[in-house]
Design a protein that fits this description.
Layout (H helix, E strand, L loop, with lengths): L6 E7 L3 H12 L4 E5 L10 E3 L2 H9 L11 E3 H16 L6 E5 L1 E8 L4 E7 L5 E11 L14 E2 L5 E7 L9 E5 L4 E7 L6 E6 L8 H14 L5 E9 L3 E2 L8 E3 L14 H22 L2 H31 L1 H6 L20 H9 L12
Parallel strand pairs: 1-2, 1-8, 2-5, 8-16
Antiparallel strand pairs: 3-4, 6-7, 7-8, 9-15, 10-13, 10-14, 11-12, 12-13
Bound molecules: flavin-adenine dinucleotide.
The site of flavin-adenine dinucleotide has 35 residues, from α1, β2, β3, β6 and β10.
């Protein structure tokens, strides 16, 4: 096993999109950083995402303005792959200030007055190593609740969605879909990055009991009717109900991204928010550690956590509002009777794209880079 450092300025737990962005931003801010991740290096998730202008600006600040190559939509897999590549490249530049531990999991936390003592498990060897970090960025998507960190509470209705990726090249332009007017479900197809495949997404009405097995069956029937073939990335059925921390963290842990709160998938903002949080977290921790005195340091961290928490509260408010407009969104898609679906049944929504282009079409603001 490669030795992990035992003393760092910041330990980033989780190298999803938020954690990778945090590790890169922390390194750029001159912090001695260790990032750990229990999964392997390959990015595997396949949801389509919008990248918000603020997130594109944050990516610009960590030297990755090209992540979406100027597009407004991409896939989580694409963003995560690009961020992981950049983090791996930054970590292998000699014995620099960034080190990464793949197949390593945070398994225990001991909060001390001036540091966090973390126990890190090497999943391959089974060994546990202590790491002393001045601050911890929790980018685990909420998985530290199992280690006694505050639990996120429900902030919205159940909302079951299914998604999968197929290797078949798209036969359509843009995004197409259809709706089942009786069940109020809609089914969307997106091209993947580079048009090498198709992502399918089935959205069920929020706040109603759902028979997940029957929903999966309908999803697979639609995929078969459209000749999508076998999924190349697994079919994921998930209740994307919103949940968030009841209050901002007030210790040496800075939670970011889904660890603070999940935003409804219809908002298409969870990944963007995790990147925005990540860059703010690294810059805030660097500013705090530069102060030296523990009390002043904690005041900066408290302010940082409050700002990140407020971003998620606003995101979740937006998510709840969007769910209220879902009946209108649903009617944007062509109607189709289940059992009579063909490729001709899926089509673009007449008014949705001009509206989205209007809302998201503004160029991102590029603030000066305070880390440069
Ligand atoms: C169906 C669906 C559709 C979505 N659609 C969109 C969309 O259109 N647009 C959008 O912006 N967002 C979307 N999201 C949300 C988006 O996926 C998340 O908001 C985003 O992945 C959060 O990133 P993160 O880095 O905070 O957490 P995650 O991506 O969850 O990463 C957490 C990482 O922490 C690691 N980890 C877990 N436990 C530990 C531990 N003990 N120690 C160390 N590491 C650990 C995990 O292995 C993982 O890699 C969607 C989500 C779902 C489920």
């Amino acid at each position: 096993m490669a030795e992990l450092p035992t003393h760092v300025d910041v330990l980033v737990a989780g190298l999803g999109p938020g954690g990778c962005a945090a590790a890169l931003a922390a390194r750029a801010a001159g912090l001695v950083t260790l990032g750990i991740e229990p999964r392997g290096r390959a990015a595997t998730r396949s949801q389509l995402i919008l990248v918000r202008p603020a997130a594109r600006a944050a990516l610009g600040q960590i030297g990755l303005p090209d992540v979406t190559e100027g597009r407004r939509t991409t896939t989580i897999q694409q963003v995560e792959s690009r961020l992981r590549e950049a983090a791996i490249a930054a970590a292998t530049e000699g014995n620099g200030p960034l080190q990464l531990g793949w197949q390593h999991r945070l398994v225990a936390l001991d909060m001390q007055a001036d540091h966090v003592l973390a126990s890190v498990l090497d999943e391959a060897s089974g060994q546990v190593q202590p790491v002393r970090a001045r601050h911890l960025i929790d980018a685990t998507g909420g998985r530290l609740e199992a280690l006694g960190r505050p639990a996120r509470v429900r902030r919205g209705p159940s909302h079951h969605v299914i998604t999968a990726q197929y290797a078949m090249p798209p036969w359509f332009e843009g995004i197409v879909g259809l709706r089942d007017p009786a069940r109020h479900e809609f089914y969307l197809l997106f091209p993947t990055w580079g048009r090498r495949g198709v992502i399918a997404y089935l959205d069920s009405p929020p706040g109603r009991p759902v028979d997940t097995a029957a929903l999966l069956q309908r999803f697979e029937t639609l995929a078969a009717a459209l000749g999508l073939g076998e999924p190349s990335q697994p079919v994921i059925a998930v209740d994307v109900y919103q949940r968030g921390l009841p209050r901002a963290s007030r210790d040496r842990v800075v939670p970011i991204g889904d660890a603070v709160g999940t935003v409804d998938a219809l908002m298409g903002a969870g990944l963007s928010m995790s990147i925005e949080d990540a860059v703010d977290a690294a810059r805030g921790i660097a500013a705090a550690q530069a102060l030296g005195a523990a009390v002043r340091e904690q005041a900066v961290i408290d302010k940082l956590n409050a700002a990140i928490h407020a971003r998620h509260r606003a995101g979740m408010r937006g998510g709840r509002l969007l769910l209220l407009t879902r009946p209108v969104l649903e009617r944007a898609w062509p109607k189709a009777q289940p059992g009579a679906v063909t490729r001709a049944s899926v089509g673009p929504p007449p008014l949705l794209w001009p509206t989205i282009r209007f809302v998201f079409g503004r160029r991102p603001q590029q603030p000066p880079n305070p880390l440069a």
